[in-house]
Design goal:
- Belongs to the membrane fusion protein (MFP) (TC 8.A.1) family.
- One of its GO terms (biological process) is copper ion export.
- It comes from Aliidiomarina shirensis.
- It holds the Pfam family CzcB_C.
- The protein has 4 domains: about 1-60; about 135-145 and about 280-355, Efflux pump adaptor protein, beta barrel domain (Elongation Factor Tu (Ef-tu), domain 3, Beta Barrel), CATH 2.40.30.170; about 145-275, RNA polymerase II/Efflux pump adaptor protein, barrel-sandwich hybrid domain (OB fold (Dihydrolipoamide Acetyltransferase, E2P), Beta Barrel); about 460-645, no CATH class.
- It is an alpha+beta fold and about 650 residues long.
- Helix 3 (about 185-200) runs antiparallel to helix 4 and helix 8 (about 490-510) runs antiparallel to helix 11.
- The strands form 7 sheets. The protein has a 6-stranded antiparallel beta barrel with strand order 6-15-18-17-16-19.
- Helix content is about 30%, strand content about 25%.
- A hairpin with a 5-residue loop joins strand 16 (about 300-305) and strand 17.
- The longest helix is centred in the N-terminal third of the chain and has 57 residues, at about 1-60.
- The chain is built from 13 helices and 30 strands.
- It is elongated.
Length: about 650
């Protein structure tokens, strides 16, 4: 019995131990399970919280403004948050970067009011008004040829007395000029006196008529010898013959030529003096061949005298019958209306002739960004002051400080007249369509692509095989100005002095030396005139002749640089056709000509900017290499070579 109870007790203890162990196990396991569950929840909450914070960072916070970035308009890859910092490459002031959705297919850009104020963006409306072509010409004053009087000797003899003995003397009508001793005159007067005596004698009727005829012939002979009717009557009344004749001035004027001195012997018909009416003047202007269609006889113009600065009006009365072979100009004579003004022959004058062209759409000349034949303007979008869109337009003629618009704009639209280049730089930075990269994704800053032509993309960058091109080179080339130049039209040897003088002009301008440019420009125009140009290159010759004959009159280096731009367009066209020796580098500066850009040629790849000189000597890029006639075999490969040289600043 005791044993049974002991067994029961042992069994109960065992059960209790098992129960206790189970309870303890559950007790120990439950906290662990609960802790794991809590940890899972906590981790889940942490993940959700992290996601929430991340979303909050990407969401717009109306109370936190994103930091404004600033960039260089010429090197837009540089960014800074400090508006007072300068570009480390060129030293230019920074401009604010517009914040906008960077849609690579969009040509729209939006600026804040603060950004617009910093960029100083200005707009002007497209207007329709009367267009006037301005033709700038120079010339000098001359005496009106219609008011010139030549005084000649009516009879041969010796100059006994010279009343006017210097050039420039002013005479009035009927003033004595010269007294001539003439034996012929003495004989003629004696014949007159004898004829008068015979006419006064009473004779039969038939003889009386004969005597009167002889008298009339004697009087006529004296008249032909220079005596007036009053002088002839005086001889008859005095009854005395004189061997001297007094020549008087037939009109008032200025003695511009004196051909005799006292004591000289003269023959009948010799010129003694030339008189000019100093109240009747001409302005004689030189008009280049390309501008002749803009002037016509009967046209009224206004011009200024350099000495006084006063405005003078006149009418075109004649155009010279032929073009000057050296200057490639024709003389246009303008009769001056203001005869009461004190004018001097030989005085330098300049005219700005206004030629009416009719009603047309016009925009400021500073509005379009022009590359070759393509022009881009930025138009304000509706009433949104800070939103602008790029638009390609077709330009017509440049009329002073305005451009004619042929298509692409409507009257009243607002175009950016100042700051367009800065807006375009931002689009280039974003890889959106812009002036330099019409398809978008193009170069930024000064990264331009060299090619066979100034505007042709680099072929070698695409791995194009040029061997076929070497065998069949193009026979025509088109420059930025649109001029087409064919090969083998001019002897390249004749153009060598032209290229040499052009390089001297470039050297003078990049050194800011106006005097050296004047010398080089004179050599340049003489070299151009010496070339035997075919008629097919008339457009090139006209471009090269810009400023011909007036280099020594250019007093401003900015004028010289404007002429150099005209010369460069034609020279690039000739170089693209291979008329030069060796290799020439085509350089381009987008800031030249008020942001319109300009190209030039150099013999080496060390970029030196002739449009800015020391101010921004390194501004620009190498757009490509043009091979000359002495290395045509490998010229195409060089032409296709990609030349994106950033020369490190402006």
């Amino acid at each position: 019995m005791k044993n049974i109870n002991f067994v029961k007790i042992i069994a109960a203890v065992f059960v209790l131990i098992v129960i206790a162990t189970t309870v303890l196990g559950i007790a120990f396991q439950t906290p662990k399970a609960g802790h794991a569950h809590a940890a899972t929840i906590e981790n889940s909450q942490a993940v959700d919280h992290s996601d929430h914070d991340h979303a909050g960072e990407n969401s717009e916070n109306p109370f936190v403004e994103e930091a404004q970035l600033y960039t260089c308009s010429m090197h837009p890859h540089f960014r800074s948050e400090d508006p007072n910092e300068r570009c480390p490459i060129c030293g230019m002031e920074l401009v604010p970067v517009a914040r906008n959705n960077e849609d690579s297919a969009s040509t729209n850009i939006e600026f804040s009011e603060r950004s617009l104020a910093l960029l100083n963006v200005q707009t002007q409306p497209v207007v329709r008004k009367e267009g006037n072509q301005q033709l700038r010409v120079t010339g000098q004053l001359e005496f009106d040829e219609r008011a010139l009087t030549s005084i000649s000797a009516w009879t041969g003899g010796r100059i006994e007395r010279l009343y006017i003995n210097f050039t420039g003397a002013s005479v009035n009508q009927n003033d004595p000029l010269v007294e001539i001793y003439s034996p012929e005159l003495l004989v003629a007067q004696q014949e007159l006196l004898q004829a008068q005596k015979n006419a006064d004698t009473t004779v039969p009727g038939f003889l009386q008529e004969s005597n009167q005829t002889t008298l009339r012939a004697a009087r006529e002979r004296l008249r032909l010898l220079g005596l007036t009717q009053a002088q002839i009557d005086a001889v008859v009344e005095s009854g005395t013959a004189s061997d001297r004749v007094l020549i008087r001035s037939p009109s008032s004027g200025l003695v511009v030529t004196r051909n005799v001195a006292q004591g000289d012997y003269v023959n009948a018909g010799d010129s003694l003096f030339e008189l000019a009416d100093n109240n009747k003047m001409w302005a004689v202007f030189e008009v280049f061949e390309r501008d002749l269609a803009l002037v016509a006889v009967g046209q009224h113009i206004e011009f200024a005298l350099q000495a006084t600065g006063s405005a003078v009006h006149g009418e075109i009365i004649s155009v010279s019958p032929r073009i000057d072979a050296d200057r490639r100009t024709r003389e246009v004579r303008v009769a001056i209306d203001e005869s009461e003004q004190l004018l001097t022959a030989g005085a330098f004058t300049s005219a700005n002739i206004q030629i009416p062209l009719g009603n047309m759409l016009m925009i400021p000349a500073s509005a379009p960004l022009v590359t070759g034949k393509r022009a881009v303007v930025y138009v304000r979008d509706g009433e949104q002051a800070g939103s602008f869109s790029a638009r390609t337009i077709e330009l017509g003629r440049k009329l002073g400080d305005s451009y004619e618009v042929l298509s692409g704009l409507s009257e009243g639209e607002l175009v950016v007249s100042r700051g367009a280049f800065l807006i375009d730089s931002e689009l280039q930075l974003r890889g959106q369509p812009s002036m330099m990269a019409p398809e978008g994704g193009g170069a930024t800053g000064h990264e331009h692509h060299g090619g066979n032509s100034v505007d042709q993309p680099a072929a070698s960058a695409q791995g194009v095989d040029h061997s076929a091109h070497n065998d069949s080179a193009q026979s025509e080339h088109t420059s930025d100005s649109g001029m087409v130049v064919s090969q083998n039209e001019v002897d390249s040897a004749e153009l060598a002095p032209v290229f040499a003088a052009y390089h001297k002009m470039w050297g003078a301008l990049q050194n800011d030396n106006l005097a050296d440019w004047q010398t080089a420009a004179t050599d340049f125009h003489e070299s151009v005139a010496a070339v035997n140009w075919p008629d097919s290159l008339n457009a090139v010759v006209e471009q090269l002749s810009t400023g011909a004959g007036h280099a020594h009159h250019v007093a401003s280096i900015s004028t010289a640089r404007n002429q150099f731009h005209q010369h460069s367009q034609a020279m690039i066209a000739l170089a693209e056709a291979g008329y030069h020796e060796g290799e020439l580098h085509v350089m381009f500066c987008p800031m030249a000509r008020s942001g319109q850009g300009a190209s030039w040629l150099q013999q080496d790849d060390e970029l030196l900017n002739p449009y800015y000189g020391a101010m921004m000597l390194r501004c620009g890029d190498n757009k490509g290499v043009l091979s000359g006639h002495d290395n045509e075999a490998h010229g195409s490969d060089d032409m296709g070579d990609q030349r994106n040289h950033d020369h490190g600043g402006h």
